[in-house]
Amino acid sequence: MLRRLALSVPLMLATPALAMTEAVTTYTLDNGLDVVVIEDHRAPVVTQMLWYRVGSADEPQGASGVAHFLEHLMFKATENMEAGEFSATVAANGGSDNAFTSTDYTAYYQRVAADRLPLMMQMEADRMNNLRLTDEDIETERQVIVEERNQRVESNPGALAREQMTAAQYLNHPYGAPVIGWMHEIEGLGRDEVREVYETYYSPNDAILVVAGDVEPEEVLALAEEHYGPIPAEPELPERIRPQEPPQRAPRHLTYEDARVSQPYLSRGYLAPERDAGDQRAAAALTYLAEILGGSSFTSVLGEELVFERDIALHAGAGYEGKSLDDTTFSLSVVPKPGVTLDAAEAALDEVLAGFLDTGPSEEQMKRIRTKLRASEIYARDSVEGLARRYGAALSQGLTVEDVADWPEILQSVTADEVRDAARALFDPDRSVTLHVVPSREEALK
Amino acid sequence: MIRILSLTLALCATVAGTARAEVAIEIEEVTSPGGITAWLVEDHTIPFTALEIRFEGGTSLDEPDSLGAVNLMTGLLEEGAGEMEAREFQAAREDLGASFSFDVGSDTLSVSARMLTENRAAAVDLLREALVAPRFDPVAIERVRGQVQSILAQDAQNPRRLASRAFYEAAFGDHPYGRPDNGTPESVAALTRADLLAAHEAALTRENVHVGAVGDITPEELGALLDELLGDLPEEGPELPGHVEFGLAGGVEVIDYPTPQSVALFGQPGLEREDEDFFAAYILNHILGGGGFESRLMTELREKRGLTYGISTDLVPLENAEFWIGSVASANDRMATAIEVIRDEWARIAEEGVTQDELDAAQTYLTGEYPLRFDGNGQIAGILVGMQVTGLPQSYVTERNEFIEAVTLEEINRVAAERVDPEALHFVVVGRPEGLDGAQVLQAPRVILPEVVLPEAVPAAR
To answer: Ranges for the Peptidase M16 C-terminal domain (chain B) (predicted)?
Structure first.
């Protein structure tokens, strides 16, 4: 199977490692900072990750991209360090560092020799409170971010199409805006907007520290107390309530036209429930549903039916990511073979879905996915950095350490009936967006 | 009989004033009863084994009249083998929780596998079928051919791919490196089952295979595995292609493409991996544009001027060619400035060299970063097999940092003066850049080379 397609199918994340197979220790400092320590003593390496519970969906209206903008500026000067000194110091200690922003979180990380952890903590704690924002840095960095958006989005028809689709999927929730921000709003962001996010959210009671690697929990906790402990909690941290979706009452159909598209395809999203603390079964069933419908190019329902039996598609897939603070999406995609119209491909997709809703999954399908998920838990233990990301993301998206630990067992216990019921609840056309991506609308109509 | 050569590697040299992790792995060379060798790091912490297999040759083995055959053949290895058609094969793999992936580049064909200890024998049987007895069913050939054609069509609309294709075609001409790895729409359309059988026979041979294994497996078990997995492959294949000079002279070419942001690749001749100045040049590249936020090019283009999201350079030693290559993306109205700054930096480092502080910082980073790569079975297996392909000894993992540390300021600045050549720097720009006067305007090439040797221009996320 050869594939390189810019589809709007989120990658299925492997499930977390088996409950407590890896040594995980948790703790909360008096100022509210959550600390998670994951031990892995195979190599003398440590990863520090600091996650803030603020992402693009927490931004004020009209200031899309400000969370990501701030993430860039966190590498500039603080009261104690020059612009660029943070990364330079990490490098001078033989490590690497970076950061990333999502809808629900902003995270910073360094990967270094284990005995460099104290210095990393000192610097990370410093920039939680002491950032110096200058207009000059903001202007230069805005140009960088404009180029980043050019590179990631404007130069990529698939990304532009996905942006339109996401905006149509959410009628009211801020998940509809792109994480990097709309270009016209990036151009309007200034020091006030950035400072507001920094002052409000960059506080210990809004953060999760994950330290993973060749470390002892007691030492990490002592270091965390020393470096992060003195930082006061933010008393006015707002409750994390975003505008929610109203009942969605109409299917949306979009056609995105871009001459740079060489391969027409269609994508469909449905609003879907996410993993909630103490309530993860529906999400577990949807995880199976995505795997069974489109997780394998060869043995999934869509793969078998559209690529093999009907022979009308080059590729068909499904995707679902249950980690999300608010309603997430379940996506389907079909890349038709040359000569097959998108309308015909969409009709075939709907037929296959209807057939599946009647029968539900077979025991053979359930067993195969159960095996795959169990194996992926074992393989996941090979990357302590991956585990660190898993815990950091989960904790910044409303889940607890217990939820993360319970998840593999919940997955192993999902039944075929639950998957069928989840599918019936999910595939409501009124909660869907269907996107056709074409080089030319006129051509597509022929 | 299984011969085991054991070599313990535990690095102890620590530089005063800096702290770094040390590579502490034990590599064993395992020779199977049938005479196939592999490098092994035993680690029984997690009940699985990571296996990395490389066959030298890759798409360089394409015959001129069947371009894309090795690529299409590689895509078909997982599409049915032995008694099983594609879906049966994949169902069997999924039922074992095993993962296999097959990839091919201009120098090597790669097989990566992860297998659970509890059913490793069955997983090995299955992988063996894919390597030794792929079916190349006509229906599977047509399916994967369609996928390849789709990729070729997408590549023809991708500025980065367009730049890459033009760059390699101009740099290497008729040598396999100058040809499209995936083939052309016409050549792929014309490939026959016989072409694929021939490509399989040529590209997967025992004389060209290297293996790295890491995880929950003993030397005896690995020895048996090697014979089972690879023992029935042909012993020898065709001669591999020879060396080729980097053929680009200084200049700027522009390929017109409607996009808001231009993409540029740039390069000049490089150094062989065996060159005595290689490590000096490697450090020099790190200081100039080695991908970190501290490189001169990142500082000048991104941090000071906001001209790009990312710029990086790489000193590439392919099997048969050596060159320096870099990439950058910048808005159409700013690309000319970006190129000017790159040229200035190229000239500055050639004329002035680097400072002792820069050299110290680079050496500390590079020696500190190296041990961090050895985290995880899959990562280590990849390093082990890469060393074998490059022809490095096992002792390299402990000696490598000493080579880095041995480079002096005088040496690196001599190499900068001798090897960095701003006059030789060649740019290929795809887009609608403004103000690049005198640039040669080219027609877009028809086909695109995969980005096998291209450095990624973008730092992960920031």
So the answer is: 191-364
pLDDT (0 to 100) of residue B24: 80
A273-282, A296-305, B16-25, B126-135: segment of lowest average pLDDT: B16-25
B437 vs chain A: nearest CA distance in angstroms? 23
Domain A252-445: assigned CATH number: 3.30.830.10
In a domain, B150, yes or no: yes
Q: pLDDT for A123-178, tens place per residue?
A: 999 999 999 999 999 999 999 999 999 999 999 999 999 999 999 999 999 999 99
**For the domain A23-227, what is the CATH code?**
3.30.830.10
Task: Tokens for B195, please give them.
Answer: 């072409």
Sequence ranges of the domains in chain A: 23-227, 252-445
Least confident of A374-378, B69-73, B443-447: B443-447
Is 90 exceeded by the pLDDT of residue B454?
no
- Name the amino acid, one letter, at B267: G
Number of domains present in the structure of chain B: 2
Q: Are B45 and B148 in the same domain?
A: yes
CB nearest to A154's CB, from B116, B144, B260: B260
B60, part of any domain: yes
- Beta carbons of B154 and A262 less than 8 Å apart: yes
Q: Report whether pLDDT(B259) > 50.
A: yes
Instruction: Pick left, alpha or beta for residue B207 (phi over 0 → left; psi -120 to 50 → alpha; otherwise beta).
Output: alpha
Which 3 state secondary structure label does DSSP give B353?
coil
Distance in Å, alpha carbon of B199 to nearest chain A alpha carbon:
17
pLDDT value of residue A105: 97
Indicate if the alpha-carbon torsion angle A429, A433, A437, A438 is positive or negative. positive
Contact B144 A299 (CB under 8 A): no
Shared domain check, B256 and B225: no
Which amino acid is it at B178? G
Q: Cβ B305–A140 below 8 Å, yes or no? A: yes
Please check whether residue B156 lies inside any domain of the structure.
yes
CA pair distance A43, B383, nearest whole angstrom: 15
Which residues, in sequence order, are CB contacts of A343 under 8 Å at separation 6+? none
Catalytic residue among A22, A71, A321, A377: A71
Q: Check if A71 is active-site.
A: yes
- Asked if the structure places residue B244 within a domain, the reply is no
Same structural domain, B260 and B202: no
pTM recorded for the entire structure: 0.90
Contacts of B372 in chain A (CB under 8 A): 43, 45, 94-96, 111-113
Closest CB from A45, A151, A296 relative to B458:
A151
A433 SS3 class: strand
B303 touches chain A (CB under 8 A): yes
- Tell whether B384 and B426 lie within a shared domain: yes
CATH for B273? 3.30.830.10
Query: ipTM score of the complex?
Result: 0.89
Q: Same structural domain for residues B430 and B290? A: yes
Pair B299, B219 in one domain? no
Mutate to test the interface with A, among B49, B74, B296, B309 (most CBs of A within 10 A): B309
- CA-based nearest distance A232→chain B, Å: 27
Query: Tell me, what's the pLDDT at B80?
Result: 97
Q: Which residues of B touch A146 (CB under 8 A)?
A: 306, 331
- Provide the domain limits for residue B353: 251-442
Instruction: Decide the pairing of beta strands B426-431 and A207-213.
Output: unpaired
Which chain A residue lies closest to B103 (C-alpha atoms)? A2
For chain B, counts of helices (H) and of strands (E): 15, 15
- Check for a shared fold between A23-227 and A252-445: yes
Judge: A314–B306 Cβ closer than 8 Å, yes or no. Answer: no
Q: Is A276 helix (H, G, I), strand (E, B) or coil?
A: strand
Q: How far is B389 from chain A (nearest CA, A)?
A: 24
Between helices A85-92 and B356-372, what is the axis angle to 10°? 70
At B187 the pLDDT is 97
pLDDT in tens, A246-292: 999 999 999 999 999 999 999 999 999 999 999 999 999 999 999 99
Confidence class of residue B365 from pLDDT cuts 50, 70 and 90? Answer: very high
Give residue A15's pLDDT: 32
Query: Residues B180, B311: one domain?
Result: no
